[in-house]
Amino acid sequence: MARPETNSSIAANRYRRDFELASQLLRKGAVKEASRISSDLLQSHPNQPDLLHLCGMGAFHQQDYSSASALLTKATVLSPKNDIFLNDLGLIWMAAGRYAQALTCFQKALTIAPHAASIHYNMGLAFKKAGQEAAAAVAFFSALQCQPTYSKAHFSMGNLLLEKRNFQGAETHFRAAISADSSYLGAYNHLSNCLVALGRIDEARDSLLKAHTIDPTNADTLCNLGNLERQAHRFEKAAEYYRDAICLKPDFVNAHFNLGLVLLLLEDFENGWPEYEWRLRFFPPGSGFPHRFGLPLWNGESLKAKSILVYDEQGFGDTLMFFRYLPMLRKLADRIVFETRPSFLDLFRQMPFIDEIFLRGSDNRPNIQCDCCIPLLSLPGRLGITKSDLRGDTPYLFADDKRRAHWAHRMRGDGLKVGVVWHGHTQSFSLENLSLLSKLQGVHWYGLQKEMPPEIQTHQDDHWFIHQLGPDLNDFADTSAVIANLDLVISIDTSVAHLAGAMGKPVWVMLPHVPDWRWFLKQDTTPWYESMKLFREPSRGDWQAPIARMRRDLDQWIQDRSKIKRNTKPNAQ
Predict the structure, then answer these.
(1) Which parts of 422-551 are beta strand (E)?
(2) Could you tell me where in the chain the CATH 3.40.50.2000 domains are found?
(3) Would you state the CATH architecture of domain 292-389?
(4) What is the pLDDT of residues 148-204, one digit of tens each?
(5) Beta strands 443-447; 466-468: pairing state
(6) pTM of the model
(7) CA within 20 to 30 Å of 345's CA: 34, 63, 141, 517, which one?
């Protein structure tokens, strides 16, 4: 005869049943129902460590980090030797942005389970989020020592190396991640980025197509395929991939923005400008952008009797290029207020179409009360600019007379005066490539680099032909004064090239094989600047033909200049 269950055994069985049900629901993603059941259990069992852990993880999955951390902290107090509890508490602190607390939890967990690869890995993630990349690398390496086939640790180590531009090292780890998990989409995608940087475009495409085969509905892979086709100069195909990604993920900011860049490159302004506006969604919440001081964005409505705040938002070159649209905007608005950075202040403050200019800063606000605002690079889209509207109306920027005279004294002398910029944030060009030009007679070379790259700092004697002015240029007003004293500027795609073009100064720009959208394709001139000539890299790393053409053009300039001088000499009496 079976013995009857006691009340305590019935309660214990009910507890085990409900606990197991809540655990299963949580694993299946039914978080709210799991949390309801576990919370009910907690009323009658407030000091059960496993139940506290279960309730805490339910709160964690609902992003209630305050409740989750309180529940897990109590669980770790009741069960201080439980490495799982400590690890999960660390994950909660990390999700809440409390990296120091997270690292403390992981360190305690490792004293209990020193060979737990996942805890080493989580510690690496916390170090990475805290900005301690060297410590993160050590933690990921420890995870891999514990578990050599740990795909996530290989992936994270690969990302660290990729950020350091150690492409070969990153490739090794991404391939190891794929070897451990052949369906790891992120590893295929990031491996492709490495291979592109190494110039192995076909291999990069194979990696992405493999990822696409594994999951044809992954929008990130399609977007990366679009990026790859851009690198391969297959721009129509790139646009097709971006559109496919957007069909799968309509709010995919990167795909929209990249589509905008391709459409603008292909001179499709009508469809390109709206897609380009998606860049404004890159501004994080609470940044104060794109709605400066809480102002609404201008969407093309009448500005009669209104004041508008315009602010620069991207690189220096972008600001110099799109500054041209402020006079057009001034015809529509009663007043224009311009918010900018210190490097532009003295150059822009003299412009008559700006009613107030002020520096961006946490405590700085304009004196003029504005009705709306607009990022500078949104102006052409709002103004309905098309390719036919690009007339290269230059000059629209000018050097200050006093500064120009100051630099004229320092740069006095005969001969052709040529300014050079060969190093930028997104493009660099070895000075060795310019050695052919340096042999030309009658040319004075002036370096306009604000920051001296390592090749100049360590090999000054090798580049003796360049007079370095860059370190003495305090802002763009100084740079404009130097440019005003030059005959020609030769530059990679940098702000100095835009400044020279905006001043109407002859400027030769060396463009990479895949140029920025504004330079379009194939032409050796640009509608943006009448005085600009473009020298395009025909393939990655091949500058021989463009430099040879530049040498011929510069040699012809010197000859023409000499003829003019001979023809204008007064006759002897």
Answers:
(1) 443-447, 466-468, 488-492, 507-511, 525-526, 529-536
(2) 401-562
(3) 3-Layer(aba) Sandwich (3.40)
(4) 999 999 999 999 999 999 999 999 999 999 999 999 999 999 999 999 999 899 999
(5) parallel
(6) 0.86
(7) 517
